[in-house]
Amino acid sequence: EDRYLVRLDEQDDPKRMKNLQKWVIVLVVCSGALCATCASSVAGFAETGISRDLHVGEEVAILGISLYVLGLGEHAIASYCNCLGPLLIGPFSEVQGRNPIYRVSYFLFFALSFPVAFAPHISVYLVFRFLTGFCSSAFLSVAGGTVSDLFDDTKVAIPMAVYTVSPFIGPVLGPLISGYAARANTTWRWTFRLLIIWTFIELMLLLWLVPETLAPVILKHKAQRLRKSTGDQNYWAPIDRREGTLMHALLMSCYVPFKLLATDYMALLIDLWAALILGIQYLTFQAFPIIFEQGHGFNVQSTGLSFIGMGLGLFIGLALQPFFSRYLRQQREKYDGKPPPEVQLVVGQFGAVLMPISLFWLAFTTYPHVHWVVPIIASTPFGTGIFFAYAAIFTYTVTAYRPVAASAMAANAFVRTASAAAFPLFARQMYDTLGTVGATALLAGLTTVAAPLPFVFYRIGARLRASSKFTTSPE
């Protein structure tokens, strides 16, 4: 029977591609992730125009961001059906491959962006903002897997760090793009027209430059070609003889993330920490216009530039990644190649300390008499802290819950995006009531309360995981 078992040859193995081709694929996937998340905040400076032209209040216009984020995580709390998307994508990608997910999701993202840009009514705008987020989330649900398909465990750290930072640069880049679009053109619709152009370019790059990288699916296609070319139907790939049906896999993929949240305390705690961080980051997209337009007299274009500090912080975090990779190599040597997952949380400890420092610094430099460059500089450590925290959260989740890694990441995304969708809705009321100093200091206080979490997780993580049915054995 093994005689007909199809195996990967050197030319088939994605891990044996030339490094240049691997990095081209990684960069295309990263730019696609950046575009998908940039679209969430790109509506930030379109709110005034939407409110005026579609005859609604600003709170309703802000829903364009929240609904996209709900679609992006596919976690519409009001409708359980909408949270099934990323949980269903995993099993489909395991059978059909990553490329069909990429191409279909980005084509729908591109096509459904037209009703947003040319919406005649607020209901059309809001419905299609949700749908575009829903479609782009399918891309994000499998994009990280492409990076792991291409690189061995010993070489994956840097490309994975590059991918990790790209979805977080997107929300920072969005206000910068929309600020310039609003200044250069008389209509808010040009913000979304630019997004249509960008998504079309990304779709073309995916079609031309990104091949299938999932090894089981490559073998499946190879077996199909051999059966067709030889006429011998005995050729088979391991995926052809997998146990269980696709429907069973779909049902399990929807069930496990919620069971994980309900029964595994470690997974729930780290997901709540992730939710707080992302919620505060998305709240800043509403807070920065208040701080810089009202406090410093910035116009829309200049306010978009105020996010540069946070973006620079993300790049600084990426630049420091090799130092933490060296630390992780030392830990692998110390534990004979099998370090406990908690070593991944060390980088998160740095992030947990940087975030409250940055937000307190930002809070007490928002006074109008303080030069505007100071709060921008103050936001830089916040960006670095975000990168460090999420690098720790993602790598810990995948390594600690490796048997159910996809479900663990889906559970994390469920909690995270629900928070990111909710926080912007009360930003203006909070800043109007507490002022820029009080409101930003409140956010800093929340991150201060949360700062000990990665240190606590590092100490008790193995103990909590010992009773888990989903985790790898605590070493």
Describe the 3D structure:
- The chain has 475 residues and is mostly helical.
- It has helices at 19-41, 47-53, 58-73, 85-96, 98-117, 122-150, 157-184, 189-209, 215-230, 246-263, 265-296, 300-305, 308-319, 321-334, 346-363, 373-378, 380-400, 405-422, 427-450, 453-465.
- Helix 1 (19-41) runs antiparallel to helix 6, helix 5 (98-117) packs antiparallel against helix 6 and helix 13 packs across helix 17 (380-400).
- It is globular, with a radius of gyration of 23 Å.
- The model is unreliable at 74-84 (pLDDT under 50).
What's a concise summary of this model?
With 475 residues, this protein is mainly alpha-helical.
**How large is the radius of gyration?**
23 Å
Largest sheet: none
Helix content: over 70%
> Could you tell me how far the N terminus lies from the C terminus, measured between alpha carbons in angstroms?
38 Å
Number of helical runs?
20
Layout of secondary structure:
Elements: H1 19-41, H2 47-53, H3 58-73, H4 85-96, H5 98-117, H6 122-150, H7 157-184, H8 189-209, H9 215-230, H10 246-263, H11 265-296, H12 300-305, H13 308-319, H14 321-334, H15 346-363, H16 373-378, H17 380-400, H18 405-422, H19 427-450, H20 453-465
Helix pairs in contact: 1-3, 1-6, 1-7, 1-8, 2-3, 3-6, 3-18, 4-5, 4-6, 4-10, 5-6, 5-8, 7-13, 7-17, 10-18, 11-17, 11-18, 11-19, 11-20, 13-17, 15-17, 15-19, 15-20, 17-18
